[in-house]
Amino acid sequence: MIVQYYLYKWNYDYEVLSNIRDSKVSGALSDAITNNFNIKIFASAEREYNILEDVVEKRRKITRTKWFRAMVIWTSTSLLTVVLEMSMFFFAIQFRKEGVLSIGVFVLLQIYLFRTLDQMWSIGNIFRNLYQSFSQSAEMLEILDEKHEIQDTRDDVLKIQQGNIAFNDVTFRYEENDNVFDNLSFKIKTGEKIALVGESGSGKTTVVKLLFRFFDIQRGSITIDGQDISQVTQDSLRESISMVPQDPILFHRTLRENIAYGKPDATEEEIIAASKMARCHDFILRFPK
Q1: Distance from the CA of 96 to the CA of which of 85, 120, 128, 159 falls in 20 to 30 A?
Q2: How far is residue 200 from each of residues 153, 170, 172, 205, 259, measured CA to CA in Å?
Q3: Beta strands in 66-115, from DSSP E residues, in sequence order
């Protein structure tokens, strides 16, 4: 049993590496499938194929080594079983010659031995499953142990009255990079339509992310109707803001569920009205289902 424990522990690192390589293969496949349009545009199918081939080959080598070690464990356990059985026969024959051991006792010892070996195999399977579970959960535990950077400091709920937005001397940077904004201030009044214009990387998308509080600012404040968004819960903030992303994203559900995703309890009339505003209603009616 102790030997089995250390043998499975010896193979543990390759179990972890095998799961990491599985993730790499899944990531490469996901990239190739979800970005197939870009792959066609840039005629990079062969390059993506080579990337996938490389990660699959690395996974194959790790898996082969893991299987080899598993066979070493199985062979070692089998040899130990054979040695134990042969030793039992040897001593039984010796004791039988000396008249110390009867046939009945020998049969009884064999039954005990078979039961013991059966339990040893079961314990070995437990060790194997245990280390496989540890290796499979290692990556997920690293993710779960990561603390959320954005935390709710209070339980206050954002209360929208008019929807006036204000950026007050906001300074922000991504990690250790240079500041994206230095003392940025502006106000958006109720009913105003604002366009953010600038070159790529100037911070247009960042303004929206900060408004949703996907990142915390270094200095200054962002308020909605005078309420600092860092002092209210993230859910109440994001429930109060609607956003139409540049890239259309659909869940694998009905169109009705997709349209009502931001408001699951929306009435049929509200869903149809939203559909008409998005210029979807006419072609949706032409769908067979």
Answers
A1: 120
A2: 33, 20, 17, 10, 30
A3: none
20, 48, 50: which is closest to 32 by C-alpha? 48
Angle between helices 45-97 and 103-145 (to 10 degrees): 150
Of 53, 52, 57, 69, nearest to 16 by C-alpha is 69
The answer to whether 173 and 180 have CB atoms below 8 angstroms apart is: yes
Q: Do 167 and 185 touch, CB atoms closer than 8 A?
A: yes
Pick the residue with more confidence: 266 or 79?
Answer: 266
Q: Compute CA 260 distance to the chain's CA centroid, rounded to the nearest angstrom.
A: 26
CA neighbor of 194 nearest in space, from 234, 236, 160, 163:
163
What is the CATH number assigned to the segment(s) 165-239? 3.40.50.300
Locate tokens 């040899």: which residue?
79
What does the domain layout of the chain look like in residue ranges?
A: 2-145, 165-239, 255-285
Nearest to 179 by CA among 147, 212, 210: 210
Question: CA separation (Å) from 133 to 19, 85, 198, 222, 243?
Answer: 11, 32, 50, 45, 41
Q: What is the pLDDT of residues 72-129, one digit of tens each?
A: 777 777 787 778 778 877 777 777 777 777 777 777 777 877 787 777 777 767 766 7
CATH number among 2.60.40.1930, 3.90.550.10, 3.50.50.60, 1.20.1560.10, domain 2-145: 1.20.1560.10
Question: Is 254 in a helix, a strand, or coil?
Answer: coil
Query: pTM value?
Result: 0.59
